[in-house]
């Protein structure tokens, strides 16, 4: 089962798993994108237009999947997510609630809806998408970081609760992935402190994003197959992880110098 399957990592995961012979149940709030994903799949597929922030709808979808599955449920990918850029001082609570309802509560809802199936069969894995911004706090990303840190803590706690069972829980921390998350997000403040529009910000993100969705899906799938508890996606994710270990309170100073150096080399 994969949420956020209308595009990006979710679509690539669906394509990869379907190509390998797995039936896939895919969900997204974007009906058009979801149909496009389904049309590109080779095997058995169940689609559901779904707002992941709606816990009742998630439970209904879980019941549908349980009845539809021709085999045990192997994995639940709670992948749906949105982006927001704003300051703490001027942030709109409505924007922040919108993001948290999807990025955190959507993960919790999906986990709670599908976990009973996995526990009953005593096998399977819950794969929750956090972020490199679930490893480090970044300016203009307080709401996003808070949600992704929450996903990380929630999934780590779940993993401990599942010890001794056949069910596991995995945190995924993607770095910059070439998706439309920035283009489809809410940009109230330029992350670089400039006055760029959303299209300019999205174009800038595309330039620095280091990993394609297909590559991300490959890394995530392999990590799950290898039984990893935490999956870092992309070289920038490994950079962030190392930086947080080496300079846990001064990482942004190091990162800022690194970015300035890269900018000067490119001139």
Task: Describe the model.
It is a single chain. 50% of the residues lie in helices and 14% in strands. The protein contains 10 helices and 9 strands. Mean pLDDT is 89; it is low at 262-267. The chain has helices at residues 8-19, 31-39, 55-68, 93-103, 105-121, 142-161, 198-208, 213-225, 235-246, 251-265; strands at residues 2-3, 24-28, 45-49, 75-78, 84-85, 124-129, 167-174, 186-187, 230-233. Strand 1 (2-3), helix 1 and strand 2 (24-28) form a beta-alpha-beta unit. The termini are far apart. It is globular. The strands form 3 sheets. A 4-stranded parallel sheet has the order 4-6-7-9. Helix 1 crosses helix 8 (213-225), helix 3 packs parallel to helix 5 (105-121) and helix 4 (93-103) packs parallel to helix 6. The chain is an alpha/beta fold.
Structural class, by secondary structure, is: alpha/beta
Q: H/E order of the elements?
A: EHEHEHEEHHEHEEHHEHH
- What topology, given as strand order, has the largest sheet? 4-6-7-9
- The count of strands amounts to 9
Task: Name the overall outline.
Answer: globular
How many angstroms separate the termini? 45 Å
Strand content: 5-15%
Mean pLDDT, to the nearest integer, reads: 89
Tally of helical segments: 10
Low-confidence region ranges: 262-267
Tell me about the biggest sheet?
4 strands, parallel
Radius of gyration, taken over Cα atoms and rounded to an integer in Å: 18 Å
**Into which percent range does the helicity of residues fall?**
40-55%
Question: Can you lay out the helices and strands and say which pair or pack?
Answer:
Blueprint: E1 2-3, H1 8-19, E2 24-28, H2 31-39, E3 45-49, H3 55-68, E4 75-78, E5 84-85, H4 93-103, H5 105-121, E6 124-129, H6 142-161, E7 167-174, E8 186-187, H7 198-208, H8 213-225, E9 230-233, H9 235-246, H10 251-265
Parallel strand pairs: 1-2, 2-3, 4-6, 5-8, 6-7, 7-9
Helix pairs in contact: 1-8, 3-5, 4-6
């Amino acid at each position: 089962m994969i949420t956020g399957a209308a595009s990006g990592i979710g679509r690539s995961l669906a394509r990869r798993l379907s190509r390998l012979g797995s039936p896939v149940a895919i969900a997204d709030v974007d009906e058009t994108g979801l149909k496009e994903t389904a049309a590109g799949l080779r095997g058995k597929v169940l689609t559901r237009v779904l707002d992941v922030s709606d816990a009742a709808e998630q439970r209904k979808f879980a019941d549908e999947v349980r009845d539809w599955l021709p085999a045990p449920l192997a994995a639940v990918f709670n992948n749906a997510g949105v982006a927001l850029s704003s300051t703490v001082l001027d942030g709109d609570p409505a924007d922040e609630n919108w993001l948290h309802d999807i990025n955190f509560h959507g993960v919790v809802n999906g986990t709670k809806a599908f976990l009973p199936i996995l526990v009953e069969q005593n096998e399977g894995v819950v794969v929750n998408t956090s972020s490199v911004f679930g490893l480090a706090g970044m300016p203009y990303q307080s709401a996003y970081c808070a949600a992704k840190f929450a996903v990380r803590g929630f999934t780590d706690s779940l993993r401990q609760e599942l010890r001794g069972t056949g069910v596991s829980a995995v945190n995924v921390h993607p770095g910059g992935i070439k998706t439309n998350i920035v283009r489809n997000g809410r940009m109230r403040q330029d992350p670089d402190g400039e006055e760029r529009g959303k299209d300019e910000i999205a174009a800038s993100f595309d330039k620095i994003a280091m990993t394609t969705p297909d590559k991300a899906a490959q890394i995530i799938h392999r990590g799950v197959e290898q039984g990893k508890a935490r999956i870092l996606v992309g070289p920038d994710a490994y950079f962030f992880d190392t930086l947080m270990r080496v300079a846990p309170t001064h990482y942004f100073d190091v990162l800022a110098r690194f970015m300035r150096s890269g900018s000067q080399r490119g001139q």
